[in-house]
Design goal:
The longest helix is centred in the middle third of the chain and has 18 residues. Strand 4 and strand 5 form a beta hairpin. The protein is globular. It contains 16 helices and 16 strands. Strands 1-9-8-7-6-2-3-14 form an eight-stranded mixed β-sheet, sandwiched between helices. The chain has a four-stranded antiparallel β-sheet with strand order 10-11-13-12. By secondary structure, the protein is of the alpha/beta class. It binds pyridoxal-5'-phosphate. The site of pyridoxal-5'-phosphate has 13 residues, from helix 4.
């Protein structure tokens, strides 16, 4: 780090703008907060006064040469990238732009199977030909969470024309794998590695957090600052650190997939989130880790789950509850929510809790809630069987290319009829937003059973017709 990380140029400019109380003869229509629905004015007022647009002095996200450029340079300096872009449409926009930059129609790319839907959407938009690599099952996590260097090496041998490798690191639950070796192998073959690090922005704080993707020499890394650092929702960073991926082309696609009216409070929150990370000292981290250990101990008192242990491969800010006792993760999550504890997500057999980079959890209240939750679980009916995640084939391609799918017609069929056909839509439990069935994938009886179970357990899907069936190609 060579720059003075105590600076926050973008935030400072907004704060100064607010103080000057200028006459607005420009958009946005709320005129610095003077015109707004009375119903929400009090809550919104202080932010509206900073909600400017690209007026003189405020720079332009899509062609930055002032305060935005300076803020992005500070971020690049802190995170250790050649160039950092601020994203105002989340990691979603970064994933789309990086894939559109590197992949042309028909290009083969190796993609981690349990990727977020924004990766799948990027592949579709680019017309790429994905080769999906399923992570291996890990006993410690009870999930398919490990991408191994050997598997990547094998995939490169089978598909020597790969244009890129797209990985998710860490997974939603904060688990990492040996990214460094994977990137070393890929670079020997001149293949760029692009990493969706949506859940890993705070890894730059150093141990005990796992190592960040940029430290392993990833070519492009996208991080949701809003997920694990204190930034506003939708605020993300895209870092480029590569001689193989062109930063100007990424900028081109970013201005295609993002708004031409980016939110300034949101961008300034990226400036402040980076500044916040630079101010955290090792004593603060120790204190946070101690608090997390206390919280883990409180959760260990719950009768409906086992708290999975956390190793050096796990993000300490994430706690995974392995649900047991004949209840599903969804059943138990409902009970937790009823007591005021809102988890990040539930699956059939796990619940994910995410902590922040602070220590302000009311432990006494939590301990009392735990007793209440145990009482409720004692009378909650149990289910016969709860199956966890399903296995995906190790390496798999889609049945049709995205180009072919575009020309095909589809119909809605019931689930039984769908088996053996090719899905014309993805089936996406949300959260986490990772497709169970991908558009272009052949539907198996295993898929059918798993989705039936999830529906019965009360999982939520981003599919209108999931109770009736699925659109398949004819
Ligand atoms: C692994 C992963 N990638 C990408 C995204 C999308 O990120 P964003 O919400 O910042 O657009 C998510 C969101 O949950 C995610 O979990």
């Amino acid at each position: 780090m060579d720059m003075d990380q105590n600076q926050t140029p973008l935030y400072d400019a907004l704060a100064a703008f607010k103080k000057r109380r200028l006459d607005s003869f420009h958009v946005p229509g709320h005129k610095n907060g003077k015109i707004f629905s009375k119903r929400g004015k009090d809550d919104y007022q202080s932010i509206l006064e900073m909600d400017v647009t690209e007026i003189t002095g405020m720079d332009d996200l899509h062609a930055p040469d002032g305060i935005i450029k300076h803020s992005q340079q500070l971020a690049a300096d802190f995170f250790g990238s050649d160039q950092t872009f601020f994203l105002i449409n989340g990691t979603t926009a970064g994933n789309l732009a990086m894939i559109l930059t590197v992949c042309s129609p028909g290009d083969q790319v190796l993609v981690q199977r349990n990727s977020h839907k924004s990766i799948m959407n990027g592949l579709e938009l680019a017309g790429a030909k994905p080769v999906f690599l399923s992570p291996e099952f890990e006993k410690e996590t009870n999930r398919y969470s490990k991408v191994s260097p050997i598997a990547v090496e094998e995939a490169i041998r089978c598909y020597p024309d790969l244009k890129a490798i797209i990985l998710t690191y860490p997974d939603y639950f904060g688990r990492v794998y040996d990214l460094e070796t994977i990137i070393r192998i890929s670079h020997v073959h001149q293949i760029p590695v692009m990493v969706d690090e949506a859940h890993g922005v705070h890894f730059h704080l150093g141990g005990p957090f796992p190592s960040p993707a940029l430290a392993s020499d990833a070519d492009v890394v996208v991080q949701s600052a809003h997920k694990m650092a204190p930034a506003m929702t939708m605020a993300s960073y895209l870092h480029v650190n590569s001689s193989m991926v062109d930063a100007d082309t990424i900028r081109h696609y970013l201005q295609i997939v993002q708004s031409s009216s980016p939110s300034y409070p949101l961008m300034a929150s990226l400036d402040l989130a980076r500044h916040f990370l630079t101010t955290i000292k090792s004593e603060d981290i120790e204190h946070i880790i101690q608090t997390i250990q206390q919280i883990r101990r409180i959760f260990a008192e719950g009768i409906g789950w086992k708290v999975l242990p956390s190793s050096s491969l796990d993000d300490p800010l994430k706690i995974t509850l392995q649900v047991r006792g004949g209840w599903s993760g969804f059943d138990v999550a409902k009970i937790l929510e009823g007591s005021g504890i809102y988890p990040e997500l539930a699956t059939s057999d796990q619940i994910l809790l995410i902590l922040g980079l602070g220590t302000d959890v009311d432990q006494e209240k939590l301990a009392n809630e735990m007793k209440e939750i145990n009482d409720q679980l004692k009378i909650l009916p149990r289910r016969d069987t709860i199956k966890g995640s399903i296995a995906f084939p190790h390496i798999k391609e889609l049945v049709f290319s995205y180009m072919d799918m575009k020309a095909k017609k589809s119909i809605l069929v019931n689930w039984e009829e769908a088996v053996g056909k090719v899905a014309a839509q993805s089936v996406i439990p949300y959260p986490p937003g990772i497709p169970l069935i991908m558009k272009g994938e052949q539907i198996t009886r295993d898929h059918l059973h798993h989705i039936e179970e999830l529906v019965q357990q009360g999982a939520t899907f981003q599919n209108d017709h999931v109770h009736e069936g699925l659109f398949v190609f004819i």
